[in-house]
Amino acid sequence: MVVLHTVIAIVLVIGLIIRFRVDPVISLILGSLYLGLASGVGFGGTLEAITGGFGEIMAKVGLLIGFGVVIGSLLHATGAFRRMVSTLVNAVGPKRLPYAMAGAMSTIFPSIYVDVQVVLASPVARSAAPHLGKNGLPLLAGAIGTGIFSGYVFVVPGLAVILVAGQVNVSLGTWLLGGLVIGLATALLTTFLFQMLLKTSYWKPETDEEPDEAMLEIEASDDKASLDDAPSLGVSVLPIIVPLLMIAFGAFAKLAGVENDFIAFIGNANLALFVGLMIAFLIARSRIGVDKTNEALSEGFHTSGEILLITGVGGSLGAVIEASGMDKQLGALFAADAGAPIIISILLAWFIAAVLHIAIGSVSVAALTAAGIIGPIVPQLAVSPVVIGFAIASGALFAVQVNSNFFWMFKALLGLSTKGALKTLTMVTSIAAVVSLPMVIAISWLL
Known about the structure:
Number of helices: 20
Oligomer: single chain
Structural class: mainly alpha
Distance between the termini: 36 Å
């Protein structure tokens, strides 16, 4: 019965979000209440699980999310992101731009703030598209989409990485190298496969593109003004590169067997992102002044508040599922005979995350919920927790589509019709989810 009630709770959440357009926070709380009461957790136990789950996930990732989002807001305000993208165009030329964009979006500036990424990258895609031929726009749109979300789910400090790693109890240092390899390879291979698809009659500009000329003119003038005042490339990348180097330092020191309080302090992800935040803050104060810096901070705090709330409530559902005893049921589901458990565990983790994403429409919420369901029984599995984390990340990539706010932003900023957005963003994220799965399986053999 616990399994049945869990399925009903998840369907309830999905139905409220999609069919009745109820806010995800409200939907997740209602689902958590139903599951706790129906599965016998009790009145007090249900509320304790909801509040406890919220607090637990906040303790793990709250500061990381807040710092990461505010860094993105400050870099956006100073034009630093735009400087990075502009330099990339000049360096590689338009023909190599799809792969450069996919690679850069997934690694050099992974998606701690996906809305900012698409806002910054879309003008580049539109302006460079004519140089790539008739399919230039969909190719660059696909490259941007797969790059953003490959970084988001695989590469530190992508938001989904932080959420999943926290739930399956994997340090960001342990995740760092494997996630970087999978994220980059997924972005590049998906871009290649999508380019092959575009060589067929798949793309039809007359029905798949829907440019807004007024928007293009406004953004063109905004881009010029921002770039003229933007910091240099070396300064622009500091708030991202420095935290990554700090985390990597701690990770590699641990691998080398060198551990002490100072190394743990320097390599701590919370401190690393705070240092990145301070660097971004100083850049903003020197480039755009006190008032605009404070405005960017306010916007970042506002956005991070919304993300933190949905993140915490997603953690609440996971806690109620754990309190209901579902972890034991899933433990039985994951158990398998010799020779099969690793593959079965990876496929089930991937499948759960993929189904949740298709239903809910949020990569981060799907990843968090799947990790909340699977996390409690990870110690029982015959596979490394980081591999399960990678499998969840891979599945959560699957099919960003119309129930995602990002989908509609992507459509508008790239000048696509709804059909065109489905044929680019939905297609490349689906390909990326499938392409990354064998990589996760391959890594499981090494760990």
